[in-house]
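Practice problem: Homoserine/homoserine lactone efflux protein
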Amino acid sequence: MSLHTYILFVGASLVLCLVPGPDMLFLRGRTIAQGRMAGLCAAFGINLGAYVHLLVAVTGLSALVLASATAFTALKWVGAAYLVYLGLGALRSKGSLALPLGDTVTKALRLIFWQGFLSDVLNPKVALFYIALLPQFMNAHDPSPVKHLVALGVAGNMVGIATSIIYVFLAARMTSALRRNQAISSWLTKAMGALFVGLGLKLATEKIQ
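Answer key — structure tokens:
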């Protein structure tokens, strides 16, 4: 694999990271409603989920799932149901979802991390990204295809986490004043819930390309 190919893949990954999708919208919702720490935990959870997709893609299991309409549909509906579940929870909450003070903040942040992880793992579009994009940057006669696939996947995930961190800091800074207002913070929580429900419904109706 040449340096030119590697740079092209990094550039393609950056462009795709900047396109709003379920993970980016989940990240945005957490950051706007709950602040920088919540956004960072969501970002790292999403990034860990991306490594699961990379592992599955390298072992070839993603290809089997995406080749089966039944398996793909099942994964899609599980992911959609999870997003709707998160959204309804936010919509039913009283007041805002501001992070608690003291020791309980660690538990809250851990929950957000795993929610981000599941949000990514249950998104079949991420699996499709690895299956569709990675082979475009591989040579059919590559003597070390697994090593190079892993190198490309790790590079893409590093671009993803860097992009997410920058996004979180910018979004948190722009909305910090809003979260300090209790009424606005409560509205942001409801908006986040509606966003998650909308994402779940959108994911449920999407078809594989």
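Discussion: The longest helix spans residues 145-179. Students who identified this feature from the tokens alone can consider the problem solved.
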